[in-house]
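COMPLEX REQUEST
Ligand: 4AD
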Amino acid sequence: MIKTTIAEVHKYVDQEVKLGAWVANKRSSGKIAFLQLRDGTGFIQGVIVKSDVPEELFQTAKSLTQETSLFVIGIVQKDERSPIGYELLVNGIEVIHRAVDYPITPKEHGTEFLMDHRHLWLRSRRQHAVMKIRNEIIRATYEFFNDNGFVKVDPPILTGSAPEGTTELFATKYFDEDAYLSQSGQLYMEAAAMALGRVFSFGPTFRAEKSKTRRHLIEFWMIEPEMAFVEFAENLTVQEDYVAYIVQSVLKNCPIELKTLGRDTTKLEKITAPFPRITYDDAIECLHEKGFNDIQWGDDFGAPHETAIAEDYEKPVFITHFPTSLKPFYMQPDPNRADVVLCADLIAPEGYGEIIGGSERVYDEELLKSRLQEHHLELSAYKWYLELRQYGSVPHSGFGLGLERTVAWISGVEHVRETIPFPRLLNRLYP
Ligand code: 4AD
Ligand code: MG
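STATUS: Structure written out below.
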């Protein structure tokens, strides 16, 4: 007997196979039963025709409840109508564990109910598709950076410093010292870039932000590349090549998942490098033209502003050269204009907002000291970071891509809570 998975059934057309699976759904009449089976690798329909099988098997199939686990034996058949192209003509069922009263039924449930049952909700077809796309983005990320000469480096999660501002920190005790959960691995990645040239990290980051929007998580995952000898313009080309690469990888490797989610793939097919660039100054002007009369030079953009700017483009758009006063201490001021920094936010199309924040970094020690002081940061806490500017300092740049916002955009799901297995939100730490 061939033991296989739903993803592999295509290798065994017209052969008998055994699968471990769960019953996602069931339909039956007096003559035929249809089982929607799932095994984690995919979904397949099992068919049991009463007249072709022993009566006992047909009765077992009819009595199966949602989420009952079983081993199923059957013949793999080609089927044009199936999303995966195959179905299973079932001739044997071995129940492993009978599920009683599974709480998530095919009917509609409210979001809070589903969030309370996230540990079970993950089994649904839609959540399965989103998790597979998330996995593909992670896989393609490693592939892209490994193929382009980057070294993966893991920055610490328990830290003593606050790269993105002191108001959004989760503090904890580190024995007798104060520590924080990492908001960004960037400062450590700068050290790593001076040792290894081109590096990238992928890990969880934490923001004690009291934001309750469809774009904000308290715990999210970030990909943070950092590159020695790379200035502002080259940093943007790496970003557009990377983002185009992950979108094209998802299109190539997740067609079933995109279809399950009803994603308009023609929009994703257009995501190729290069991406458009506009300056912050032009963005302000564009917003005035669109009727956002209140926003002034020096103000930060909110979600409605980002959406309004992005709607003019089919591709993600870089907004560059933000006011120095809006951005963190480590960003390099424009040499021609000290009131703006050499930075860019990458705004996804279709209203998904900022997916990347990046910049060239200050590499002159004296300038960095004065920038730290302007931000009222303790120089002593940044001693090691300043030392990177004392021994062969070089221009360098990097960026951070928020994984969940990127998954939301590529999958076409409205809210980031569906893009991470167990979301940590304001007021939600369960399950
Ligand atoms: O713009 P941010 O704050 O940039 C940094 O942390 C830099 N240190 C990165 C770097 O240059 N190495 O965050 C980067 C990205 C944002 O563009 C967004 O996609 C995501 O991280 N992000 C969030 N995603 C979900 N929930 C939140 N609360 C997020 N905050 C930022
Ligand atoms: Mg940002």
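REMARKS: Residues 125-147 form the longest helix (23 residues). Residues 168 and 209 are 5 Å apart (CA to CA).
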